[in-house]
Amino acid sequence: MTAIEVNQVSISLGHGPAKRRILGDVCFSVAAGESFGLVGESGSGKSTILRCIARLLNSWEGDVKLEGTSVNDMPFADYCRAVQMVFQDPYGSLHPRQSIRTALQEPLRIHRMDRQVERMEKALIDVGLNPDFLSRYPHELSGGQRQRVAIARALILEPRILLLDEPTSALDVSVQAEVLNLLADLRTKRNLTYLFVSHDLAVIDHMCERLAVMQHGRIVEVMSRDVLATGAAKDPYARELIQASLEYDQAV
Ligand SMILES: Nc1ncnc2c1ncn2[C@@H]1O[C@H](COP(=O)(O)OP(=O)(O)OP(=O)(O)O)[C@@H](O)[C@H]1O
Ligand SMILES: [Mg+2]
Fold it and tell me: Which domains does the chain have, with CATH numbers?
């Protein structure tokens, strides 16, 4: 089954003379259970694609299907049960004055879920945190713990698809590895589908089976992970990006 199907998605953003085309005819699909990477230089449109799929932007053209249904035809409740997003900066998704309990309970309340306390405690345990964290506030947590809470919140409605926008880029390298391993474990255990944005090709290599390279709002090539090791991409820009990353890895 196809989990995510992005078909000819285009969007222009900005107002008046500053209006610019940000995405042009983006197409790719992600199989159920697959982890698919999106890479490309800053400003190439990676976050914008995730924001279109996540319905944080709505002025796009084209079609996005989740498990065969166009997102625009999905009732909000079904949509939230199918897909959730994790951001780079957990401060963006966790309100500083809300306790972890409030942050985790909000989606459960909106969706009128049963066994809320049990679900919140399990969500924390599943991301490697003690249920005591429910009474804490975001500023009382380390960066890694905050990102674990953001992941717990994204998973609390048991979605099948996660959109991950640089989920570990703001973390120290050692913490980054722990959170990446957690995400890999969660995917296996829950058979999740990931759409994973990172500027770090080593992270993509570790986390994804396939990836798309973006440049100036377009996908220039879709490739399997193997290509990252050899640098044998067809597109010149993709080849350059991989080559630069391979040289960097050899230099450090
Ligand atoms: N709301 C907006 N209005 C106008 N332009 C925008 C808006 N949001 C994004 N852009 C522009 O769209 C382009 C793509 O942005 P996007 O955030 O998707 O890039 P990205 O690939 O995620 O980059 P990065 O790696 O730095 O996160 C950029 O040129 C950005 O300035
Ligand atoms: Mg981005």
Answer: 2-238 (3.40.50.300)
